[in-house]
Write a structure and sequence with these properties.
- The protein contains eleven helices and twelve strands.
- By secondary structure, it is α/β, with parallel strands linked by helices.
- A six-stranded mixed β-sheet has the order 5-9-10-3-11-12, with helices on both faces. Strands 2-1-4 form a three-stranded antiparallel β-sheet, covered by helices on one side.
- α1 runs antiparallel to α2, α3 packs antiparallel against α4 and α4 crosses α5.
């Protein structure tokens, strides 16, 4: 896909630019304090929503369109050869909100639900419960998305996805001498009104959510990604904002390597965009990346090649740190 980007508002000075997304590749948008990279990623997704899969997935796509609609007022995006019926998803940067939700707001919402259930008038009761449900999923939209993804997944594709995941993790484990269960000790399962975190280091014992901090979000990101690629589609577009949150450098490398394997090997045209400040993610992504900056009073974007960060010295330092 060739994409032209320009400002849609005189208040946002943008030097017009073009980027190209190639099927089977993972591209990074990088830059110093460059809000434009996130706006661009979201604006691309918003434009694609216009021709995205409808039918059973209509509500899913409508929520994505609503979450990105403000970008249409900021940037004008033109996409050549726009794929029709594409499966789209955005993992936006809401992990700190997710942490706050589980540490405090979950109890408050539970109390509100209990109160609403006791209201005698049926219409009022249902209206209150609907508003509470909307609040809950507005704070943590990935929870509802994950549950819906499970409805659409294909068993054969899921098997392929898990095979790629296992191979990439095993390869990185051998290269660095770091046990894979140390790389990804946590696992997350989401069900309606329930969120379970287990830790392999404690034989899969369930861990209270308020003890695992933002690593919950990292584990959920992995599960969301694997589910997304398990859904049948002729075209998939996945955009992830700041995936490095709560991940060590080796985990970041493992995530991007897994994405590259999924984009290349899972049937269909697969496009992946990562917005990041991490040299590990940018360096492992397919090159060139796109560098966003603010220069001479205007936002700009240009292709850039990022030096691979995982030198032997880096890897050795990480291994020795973990061993000590």
């Amino acid at each position: 896909m060739r994409i032209k980007v320009n400002s849609a508002s005189p208040e946002i000075p943008v030097e017009p630019f073009e980027i190209e997304l190639v099927s089977g590749r993972v591209v990074s948008f990088v830059g110093y304090n460059a809000t434009l990279k996130s706006l661009t990623a979201r604006a691309i997704l918003h434009e694609l929503c216009k021709t995205a899969t409808k039918g059973a997935r209509a509500r899913f796509i409508n929520r994505l369109e609503a979450r990105t609609e403000n970008t249409a007022r900021a940037l004008r995006v033109e996409i050549s050869n726009t794929p029709e019926n594409a499966l789209l998803y955005l993992v936006d940067d809401q992990r700190l909100v997710l942490r706050a939700y589980f540490s405090s707001l979950e109890r408050t919402i539970s109390d509100l639900e209990s109160y609403a259930s006791s209201v005698a008038e049926e219409r009022t009761r249902e209206g209150m419960l609907s508003l509470i449900d909307e609040l809950k999923y507005s704070l943590a939209p990935q929870l509802k998305d994950y549950i819906e993804m499970k409805k659409f997944e294909d068993f054969y594709l899921l098997h392929m996805v898990l095979k790629v995941f296992d191979e990439k993790l095993e390869n990185l484990s051998k290269q660095t001498s770091v046990d894979r269960d140390v790389l990804l000790p946590l696992d997350v399962e989401v069900a309606p009104h329930q969120h379970i975190v287990r830790d392999r280091r404690f034989k899969g014992k369930e861990v209270p959510l308020d003890l695992v901090s933002t690593t919950v979000a990292a584990a959920l990101l992995w599960k969301l990604t694997l589910r997304f690629f398990s859904i049948p589609a002729s075209t998939r577009v996945l955009i992830v904002e700041e995936p490095e949150e709560a991940m060590t450098p080796l985990q970041q490398v493992a995530y991007v390597e897994t994405l590259k394997g999924l984009a290349a090997e899972i049937p269909g045209e697969n496009y992946v965009v990562l917005t990041t400040h991490s040299p590990y993610i940018a360096g492992v992504s397919d090159q060139p990346s796109y560098y966003f900056s603010y220069e001479n009073g205007r936002f700009t974007c240009r292709p850039a090649t990022v030096a691979p960060p995982m030198t032997k010295a880096d890897a050795l330092l990480l291994v020795r740190t973990i061993e000590s």
